[in-house]
Amino acid sequence: MKSLRLILPAATLLAALMSTSLLSFGTPAIQKKEAKPCATCHEKGKATKENPMLNAVGKYYKEKKTLEGAPK
After folding, report:
1. Within a domain: residue 37?
2. How do residues 14-41 score in pLDDT, each as one tens digit?
3. Residue partners of 61: CB distance under 8 A and separation at least 6
4. Model's pTM, two decimal places?
């Protein structure tokens, strides 16, 4: 019973970290080039290929292919 009190919270924490860490960066090419998290260019929510949910910075990056001069 004591081990269950340790294992259950640890497993929950690990699952939470794994689920959020998988979504923290953009495509490998953009990640390599910019080293920025997804939230830099995307709104919160489920982005898809058809609807990337870009914010102002994301729209700027899509047009210019750089973050230099992007809105803050």
Report:
1. yes
2. 887 776 654 444 677 887 788 888 888 8
3. 41, 67, 70
4. 0.56
Does residue 32 sit within a domain?
A: yes
Query: How many separate domains does the chain show?
Result: 1
Residue 16 lies in a domain: no
- Return d(Cα 47, Cα 62) in angstroms, integer: 15
Give the residue carrying structure tokens 């990056």: 61
> How does pLDDT run across 34-68, given as a tens digit for each residue?
888 888 888 988 878 788 899 999 999 989 989 99
Beta pairing partners, 4: none
Examine residue 48 and state whether it is found in any structural domain, yes or no.
Answer: yes
* Domain assignment of residue 67, given as a range: 25-72
> What element of type H or E holds 33?
helix 28-34
